[in-house]
Amino acid sequence: MNPLLSRLQPYPFERLRRLFADVTPSPAHRAISLGIGEPKHATPQMLKDALAASLDTGLTGYPATAGEPGLREACAGWLQRRYGVSVHPGTQVLPVNGSREALFAFAQTVLDPSKPGATLAFPNPFYQIYEGAALLGGAEPYYVPSVPARNFAADWASVPEAVWQRTQMIYVCSPGNPTGAVMPLSEWETLFALSDRYGFVIASDECYSEIYFRDEPPLGGLEAAVRLGRHDFRNLVMFTSLSKRSNVPGLRSGFVAGDAALIKAFLLYRTYHGGAMSPAVQAASVAAWGDEAHVIDNRRQYREKFAAVTPLLAEVLDVALPDAAFYLWAGVPAGFAGRLPGLSADEAFASELLAQYNVTVLPGSYLAREAGGTNPGAGRVRMALVAEPAECLEAAHRIVDFCRAHA
Q1: For the domain bounded by 56-290, which CATH number is listed?
Q2: What is the per-residue pLDDT across 141-179, written as a single tens digit (0 to 9) for each?
Q3: Which InterPro entries does UniProt cross-reference here (predicted)?
Q4: Nearest Cα to 68, choosing from 233, 277, 294, 229?
Q5: Angle between helices 99-110 and 260-273 (to 10 degrees)
Q6: Does the reported pTM lie above 0.85?
Q7: Check: CATH 2.60.40.10 for 3-42+294-405?
Q8: From CA 285, how far away is CA 253, in angstroms rounded?
Q9: In the chain, N or C: fewer CB atoms in 10 Å?
Q10: What is the dihedral of CA 14, 16, 18, 23, to 10 degrees?
């Protein structure tokens, strides 16, 4: 067996199942889960119609790994409309089976484990695929400290020179999971300068880009590059997906775009990896990328939920409206520290909330690693407001009652 598999850590939801193994959820309340970031809004009918219409002809042949020209053009067209960015559909865009598998596979394309100390860096807390991609790619993960005072933005300035010298790739996530923070242009400028100096590749995870709460849409990596005169997107690739934007997590459809040389190498890897997208899924994806009406309505639903829920929870938790994404990243009351033997404050909060009010939240420490003596997720919980508004509001009222009872 591949010995690197033994270095993988349990996924957050596996740890959550273990945490709750001996917890009996309150029978007086129906279950409400805010634990998993799985979109629950209705899938657009036009997308389902496009998928159904393609089934007769879309399953009869092997698809090309590069995808159909029509899909690459639809992706490029969306980038132009959304960010004002022009890319070549044939050389700078590649359809993928969701951003998750692409984020993992891209690292296997880029990393060179034969070089001593090969390193892949990413913010802490983080999406665990980043860590797994580093470990199975033969690299060492480096957990970049975050700054709570700046909504847990990554502190890139704290990374030592020796680490940058061996860094081959970094992941960034904007809007961020779990904090919802959006990277400003100044942060992109810093990263581009570091990339130019040390030669590392930037993989920009942007799958939450269409769920935002401010008037101005989140800045994307390619957009930042163009604003800074980097029209060739040197050492930069962005990843996006229809899962959150169009409420189709089961479709497994997204795309990557950016540096043509990196896209070419990634296409070669995926040709052997077997990463081709079904023609039926491609047809549905063309329809989805070409329509914004359902995206606007989807964003409206999230805005209404967050406007109703956030002020309630802010009465009892350290929480505020994020810049974007569909998570609340909340600090738990101090009284939960040391409350249950062997559990951190966020674990105790999640366990007792389930037992007393049948609401599931994810301990923040499961989304981070201890580095430099600190786990930046400790004492916080992530809540995914993906369910219907009434259900999210009911969960919020239960959490308020729970916190007040334990004040």
Answers
A1: 3.40.640.10
A2: 999 999 888 888 899 999 999 999 999 999 999 999 999
A3: Aminotransferase_I/II_large, DapC_beta/gammaproteobac, LL-DAP_aminotransferase, PyrdxlP-dep_Trfase, PyrdxlP-dep_Trfase_major, PyrdxlP-dep_Trfase_small
A4: 277
A5: 100
A6: yes
A7: no
A8: 7
A9: N
A10: -150
